[in-house]
């Protein structure tokens, strides 16, 4: 997975530039005010800071559509160029009007980077470390702030600090970022698949995953093009065919799904659990219907998946599927099979009407060691992609079709007899071993009518070119699962911004100066301005190990757990800051309390509420509308950012530092309640599986309302 890690690190440099710019303007605005005599014009001062936010907002309105049309990589290249050009113009700026134009261009680059870097990383990262890699933008952003504050502090010690040089230095890392985006970053494989460029997508995946066989993930990416509809949860009991045969009514044999073992003649059967609806399944696993009725059923549904999951890698597969590129690499026209099925001797006697899960093939139920590369149809996080052929009586006789199945072993108590998981690789399970599994079943995004008419024994399915050519549709936004995801994403972005973090960061030197930090460092001979820059540098330095801890925990504890555990600390820090500002404990005590409270607030913010909203927004939307939905969330982010940043000076003058942080504490409490009630856990799940869960969860919410 080193390829995916290096790509994520290179992409995250775009956020380093954003952090660098945020800190530089926070420091240089003090000198800009003096040169342009803006002390009596706080509106112009606020506009200089907010102009980049206006630019980011403007570009965000079209960034999603442009990234869907042109690709993720070209937009990141444009972002790096905008950073570079804007830094040169700021270096030149002869007057405030040119400076405003430069800040606008800078905002365009920031908007593209902030919107598309998390999207790009999510689409290239494997599920097991997606949270870690998508926390990199927060880490690099804070690192950029640290380097910038160190530069500004050093320049503040000069007799005549130049704000133009402070802002113009951004051109150097911008050039590095441009070189990386142009020469190193590949295009997102999910975007390539959405445009029908299958061979390119496969080569990118092989590079990112470090292995040749990626046909299973290729199939997953194609399935991700469809917005989940009619998704249902089904429960299966999986075991040797000869054992389950005696436990089931022969008339229900048609509902069995056949799984093939590694030895000739050996097979397992997946038997649907009788009378178990999706609501009943979730109720048994985690009580979907909570007593208060306040917690979103979707939260409980996601939570049930993470309860006592087996600590294993993905399912291992045999070699009876051929890769699509093996037949001449002629797949860019979407006319060659994505996954080609070679009929085995086990298949020849299967009647046409018999259901089978042929992609769950040899050794499919034997788990390898944790971290083992997935095989052809292993899709990460222990999930398996498969297809089920089913038939029903229709007006013109029997009608059949494929259904897509995402299957994973249930980790709940009593889910296994004989511990299939503990078996060494390749060993055939012994009699008496039964595995309990849960599956998400829905309509597939790819199928072929001619194959369906032939009654195939396996899903040798061809992706129709018209599906690839079809772009995002606004109507897809009204699908229940997408609407639900948008509510979560937009809600998190609003609450994150109104917790005040970006406004505080932009004005950190002034806030700390007002808090009296100059007194703490006066004995060192530093002025109040230089002291505030030094405190800001130390604060951002302390953020880095906190973010490193969050990176480690993001895929272990999970996004939801980190939010629920860090937001209360934010509230406590803000309340202490309020009390320290209201109660006169002496200059030294008040300055110490203010500084410590701000540092604690920043450090725990970057562990949870900082990176997680962007991580979740990059995970919960279907591929075809992901760019559009993320643009909506990012637009919400920037609008709220402008409001917070532009109004902060006015709020400081009207209600003071204590009042401002008191308001932020109230917002953080509301945010904790929102996360507890509405935000699900997505760690370790493939993006396409997350989408399906949102679909079935939204359906269950509607059913609950109607009942």
Write a compact overview of the structure shown:
The protein is α+β, with helices and mostly antiparallel strands.
Please, could you describe this protein's structure?
Residues 333-345 have a biased composition (Polar residues). It is a multi-pass membrane protein. The chain has 707 residues and is α+β, with helices and mostly antiparallel strands. It contains 28 helices and eight strands. A hairpin with a 2-residue loop joins strand 6 (384-394) and strand 7. Helix 18 runs antiparallel to helix 27 (656-678). It is globular. The two termini are 47 Å apart. Mean pLDDT is 74; it is low at 260-265, 277-281, 283-289, 308-376, 412-432, 448-452 and 455-465.
Compile the SSE list and pairings.
Layout: H1 2-11, H2 13-36, H3 42-70, H4 72-92, H5 96-124, H6 130-134, H7 136-156, H8 163-168, H9 171-183, H10 189-194, H11 198-209, H12 215-223, E1 232-240, H13 241-244, E2 257-260, E3 267-272, H14 278-286, H15 297-305, E4 321-323, E5 339-341, E6 384-394, E7 397-409, E8 435-442, H16 449-454, H17 465-469, H18 480-498, H19 501-506, H20 508-515, H21 517-520, H22 528-553, H23 559-582, H24 587-605, H25 612-617, H26 623-654, H27 656-678, H28 687-706
Antiparallel strand pairs: 1-3, 1-8, 2-3, 4-5, 6-7, 7-8
Helix coverage percent of residues?
A: 55-70%
The largest β sheet comes out as: 6 strands, antiparallel
Number of strands: 8
What is the first-to-last residue Cα distance? Answer: 47 Å
Radius of gyration: 28 Å
Main structural class:
alpha+beta
Instruction: Provide a count of the helices.
Output: 28
Strand content: 5-15%
The CATH topology annotation of the domain at 476-706 reads as Growth Hormone, Chain: A
Membrane topology: Multi-pass membrane protein
GO molecular function, one term: transmembrane transporter activity
Biased composition (Polar residues): 333-345
Domain Major facilitator superfamily (MFS) profile: 7-683
């Amino acid at each position: 997975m080193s390829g995916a890690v290096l790509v994520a690190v290179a992409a995250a440099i775009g956020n380093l530039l954003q952090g660098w710019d945020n800190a530089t303007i926070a420091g240089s605005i003090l000198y800009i005010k003096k040169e342009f005599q803006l002390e009596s014009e706080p509106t112009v001062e606020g506009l200089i800071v907010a102009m980049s936010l206006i630019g980011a907002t403007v570009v965000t309105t079209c960034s999603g559509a442009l990234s869907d049309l042109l690709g993720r990589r070209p937009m990141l290249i444009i972002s790096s160029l905008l950073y570079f050009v804007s830094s040169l113009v700021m270096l030149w700026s002869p007057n405030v009007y040119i400076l405003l134009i430069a800040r606008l261009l800078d905002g365009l680059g920031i908007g593209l980077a902030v919107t598309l870097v998390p999207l790009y990383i999510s689409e290239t990262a494997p599920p097991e470390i997606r949270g870690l890699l998508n926390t990199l933008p927060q880490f690099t952003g804070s690192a950029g702030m640290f380097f910038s504050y160190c530069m500004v502090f050093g320049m503040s010690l000069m007799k005549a600090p130049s704000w133009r040089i402070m802002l113009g230095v951004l051109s150097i890392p911008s050039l590095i970022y441009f070189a990386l985006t142009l020469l190193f970053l590949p295009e997102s494989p999910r975007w390539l698949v959405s445009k029908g460029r299958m061979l390119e997508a496969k080569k990118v995946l092989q590079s990112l995953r470090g292995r040749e066989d990626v046909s299973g993930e290729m199939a997953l990416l194609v399935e991700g093009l469809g917005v989940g509809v009619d998704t249902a949860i089904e429960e299966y009991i999986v075991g040797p065919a000869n054992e389950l045969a005696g436990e089931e009514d022969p008339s229900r044999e048609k509902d069995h799904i056949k799984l093939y073992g590694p030895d000739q003649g050996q097979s397992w059967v997946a038997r649907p659990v009788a009378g178990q609806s999706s609501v009943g399944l979730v109720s048994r696993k985690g009580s979907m219907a909570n007593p208060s009725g306040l917690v979103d059923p979707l939260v409980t549904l996601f939570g049930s998946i993470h309860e006592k999951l087996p600590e294993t890698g993905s399912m291992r597969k045999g070699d009876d599927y051929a890769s699509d590129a093996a037949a001449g690499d002629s797949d860019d026209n979407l006319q060659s099979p994505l996954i080609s099925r070679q009929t085995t001797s086990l298949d020849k006697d299967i009647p046409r009407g018999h259901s089978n899960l042929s992609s769950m093939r040899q050794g499919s139920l034997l788990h390898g060691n944790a971290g083992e590369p997935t095989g052809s149809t292993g899709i990460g996080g222990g999930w398996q992609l498969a297809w089920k052929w089913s038939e029903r009586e229709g007006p013109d006789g029997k009608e059949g079709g494929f259904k897509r199945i995402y299957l994973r072993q249930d980790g709940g108590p009593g889910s296994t007899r004989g511990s299939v998981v503990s078996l060494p690789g390749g060993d055939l399970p012994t009699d008496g071993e039964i595995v309990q599994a849960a599956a998400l079943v829905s309509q597939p995004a790819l199928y072929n009518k001619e194959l369906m008419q032939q009654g195939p024994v396996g899903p040798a399915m061809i992706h129709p070119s018209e599906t690839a050519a079809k772009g995002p549709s606004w109507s897809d936004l009204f699908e229940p699962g997408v609407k639900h995801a948008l509510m979560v994403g937009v809600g998190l972005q609003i609450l994150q911004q109104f917790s005040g973090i970006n406004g505080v960061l932009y004005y950190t030197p002034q806030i700390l100066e007002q808090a009296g930090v100059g007194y703490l460092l006066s004995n060192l001979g530093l002025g109040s301005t230089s002291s505030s820059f030094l405190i800001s540098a130390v604060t951002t330095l302390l953020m880095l190990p906190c973010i490193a801890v969050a990176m480690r925990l993001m895929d272990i504890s999970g996004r939801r757990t980190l939010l629920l555990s860090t937001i209360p600390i934010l509230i406590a820090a803000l309340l202490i800051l309020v009390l320290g500002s209201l109660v006169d404990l002496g200059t030294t005590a008040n300055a110490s309390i203010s500084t410590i409270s701000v540092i604690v607030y920043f450090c725990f913010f970057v562990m949870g509420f900082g990176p997680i909203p962007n991580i979740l927004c990059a995970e919960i939307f279907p591929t075809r509308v992901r760019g559009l939905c993320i643009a909506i969330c990012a637009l919400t982010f920037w609008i709220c950012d402008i409001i917070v940043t532009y109004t902060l000076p006015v709020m400081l003058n009207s209600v003071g530092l204590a009042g401002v942080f008191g308001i932020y504490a109230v917002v953080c409490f509301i945010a904790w309640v929102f996360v507890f009630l509405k935000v699900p856990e997505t760690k370790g799940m493939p993006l396409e599986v997350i989408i399906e869960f949102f679909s079935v969860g939204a359906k269950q919410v509607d059913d609950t309302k109607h009942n």
